[in-house]
Structure formats: structure tokens, C-alpha cells
Design brief:
Length: 161
Amino acid sequence: MKLSGKKKTEDDNAGVVLRPPIVYFLPLGAGLLLNYAFPLPFFPLVLSLVLGIGLVAKGLFVSGWALRTFRREGTSEKTNKPTTMIIVTGPFRFSRNPIYGGFIAIYFGVTFLANALWPVFLFPIVMIVMHYGVIKREERYLEGKFGKEYLEYKAKVRRWV
């Protein structure tokens, strides 16, 4: 579904505080480094591997599906670029943020694969930054740019699954 936007300038973006991959994977990396220095395993190895592989696979599938949907529709997934339409197909029928959901699955999948508890402790920081520094800003931007059409989509589709 293509919707026309109001702004076409360089400032036509959500103005997020950090790109979402950085928000997710910088704390994950820090947690893994902490785990290397001060190991805190929390699951039996076999369970950790099974959960980790499953979550990474699910996260890659969902994120990949969402990225392919963005490309098929001809708009950018990058938060520093203008949004040219509200996508309501593919995984966006079920969640307004399927890529971020995929990142969460990858985050915890890697955490389980490494059997590292430190990233779990850092995850609340990820969610606070995502909520206030990314998602709320994106929603404000989309409401301002697409108005009623975005509000209708927002009313029908949950933020998370």
C-alpha cells in the first residue's frame, strides 16, 4: 500500500537515537565480552545449543522476510532514510516491528549459544533505548507523515507479535 508523504527533504526520517542493529548488538557484544572475562553459564549445554540454534534461525527468518518485503515494495528499511509507504504485507500483517522482533530472537539465540547470562542482564537497556529512542520516534514520524492511514494500521496491527 503506497501512501504519499508530506516531507521530501534530508530531515525526512524518524530521528532515532541509534540505528537499531547497534542498539541490539552492541550490548550483546558487551555481554559476551563480560561472559568471557567472568563466565556465568545458565543452562545445560545441550539445551543451550538447541534453544540458541532455534532462536537464531527464527530471528534470521523473520528479519530476512521483513527485509525482502521492504525491498519488494521499493522502500528503505533504514531509519535514517525517508519512509515512502506503510507496508502492510508479509510479516507486517502480524507485527509493526518484525525486524526488531527478529533481532530479539537473534540476541537471545546468541546468548543461549554462548550460554552467557550477562547479555540477559543488559537486555533491559536494549528495550528502554528501543522503546524511547527508536520506536516512539518512528511512530511519531509515521503519524506525522501518513496521518490517518498510519493510525488505522497501528490500530489493527500490534507493535509486537
